[in-house]
Amino acid sequence: MKKRIAITVLLLVCFAMQSVFACFITGVGRLASTDGSTMTSHTCDSTGDDLRLWLIPSMEEGSERDVVVSGRKDADYSNFPEVKDYGSRGIVMDTYVNDKDTYQYLHAMYSFANEKGVTMNESTCGWTTEQRTILGEYEGIWDCYMLQDAALENCATAKEAVEFMGAKISEQGWNGWPECIIIADGTDLWAFEAYGGNMWCAFRVPDDAFFFCANRCRIDFWEENSDTYLADPNMKQFALDTGLWNGEGEFRPCQVFAAGNNSFSCVGREWRAVCNIENEYSEAFRANEDLALTKTPDDDFPLYLIPTEKISVQTIFDICGDHYEGTKYDNTKSAYAGMYGNPYSGSYEYRPTSVPQCTYFQISNVKAWLPEEVRCLVWFGWGAPSTTYMTPVFASQTELADHFGRGTRYEYDPESGWWNEALVQTAATLNYADAIQVIRDLRDPIMETQYEVTFAVQNQAAKMIKNGQKDAAIDLLTTYANGQAEMWFDLYDELSEYLLSRYVVGRVEMKKAPILHPEWWSKVLTSVSYIQK
């Protein structure tokens, strides 16, 4: 217990130093992936997000549903819809009646997958002052949390979700900052952007493409009368009427409505994604590190990439765990990182993709050719992607492991999945250079085996469904997924204790003295000393 108290205090101090950051998302078309699936991913990065994951069951036709703004902070969805607890900030704006049975879905800070295989992930974007002033006058009732909930409850395909979300915004308006949302269903991949007021647009990402977004709207083209491009029918006229566009030159929605985020915090992460996915641009982007500082990313960056090598779940996992290693922005070799190369020290000059305050990280991996009950597989983990694990979750499960629905950031809970990983993450900061190798040596072989076993279980469940054993197949998926979740929980419980004891008084297992001045750290000290003089 003393160990727990000590490391919890350290953890709270580390997170208290973090400011609020938002999320990084990716989308992979079915012809760009190694297994023929569509993939969407999300790092939910904030110091205030809810930590818990719940299953929201199907609701019967005729059931009433509230439209809620800000219904996440300290809300409890463990018994929804029987108990409707929207937290201290939730405001009911309207109600509607479901005209059909809804679909079960995975509910988190931002809900992300349903039993039909529709998945979606968001990245909050920004405006200019002028855009915010104008669009703020048309505030509606649908925020991102609620709209994703409603779409997952009601939609069986990605395009249906795009049309559903667009209709709600056009009819009743958007509430909140601009958002870029990637939506997939195993066959199609769509990028959807909500700007404010009644303004939105979306395009179908090519099947062989990779899409990415780091907190800046990205749809930079306009197509009329196209099946692969959808938008509010009044979008262009609204821009003219309000003065957001002067009618000259190319109409680029992301610039007309949401041109606020072109800092390194956003552009740098996107530059790194281009570097780390093999494509026609990657070599040039790696050779020109100053592109991470560009102030005109819509001109300098492609909207999407056509990979020259297929993308796996592990590829996305590695991209999301990045700290600019090996570049001049390397977070593990800076004054903030200390002599142990800790990218989670609490401060950094260059905001990386993997950050310490991350709430959860997930990759939704959907295979459209499998039965609906089997196709929607989500790889889920808490905390910073570089130190977390991924455990399989199926949107069709009948229940989740207990630790998924527990915990807040502000009170330590040893039975919470987030706190379980957060202790490992924080213990690793005592000697990150050594600890990250310990974590990888333990985690990576298990994950490699887990990929193979999970796919085998998924295929077995598919065969059972084809043989008329649907309930037994869902039971198999539930038992297997919860077993894996409990395995990781127990493993990380032991790992946090091991890491804490491994780095007592700066040594490694009280045997190996710390290297006080590795070459790169000596250069940092010399540089700092010179600046001070």
Q: In words, what does this structure look like?
A:
With 533 residues, the chain is of the alpha+beta class. It contains 15 helices and 17 strands. It has helices at 2-16, 129-136, 144-154, 158-172, 235-242, 253-257, 264-276, 282-287, 297-300, 313-320, 372-375, 417-428, 432-466, 470-502, 519-532, and strands spanning 24-28, 38-45, 54-56, 64-69, 91-97, 105-107, 113-114, 119-124, 179-184, 189-196, 199-204, 210-214, 229-231, 304-305, 358-366, 376-382, 391-394. It has a seven-stranded antiparallel β-sheet with strand order 14-12-1-2-15-16-17. Strands 8-9-10-11-13 form a five-stranded antiparallel β-sheet. A three-stranded antiparallel β-sheet has the order 3-6-7, with helices on one face. Strand 9 (179-184) and strand 10 (189-196) form a beta hairpin. The radius of gyration is 23 Å and the shape is globular. 52% of the residues are buried. The model is unreliable at 1-21 (pLDDT under 50).
Quick summary:
This protein has 15 helices and 17 strands. The chain has 533 residues and is α+β, with helices and mostly antiparallel strands.
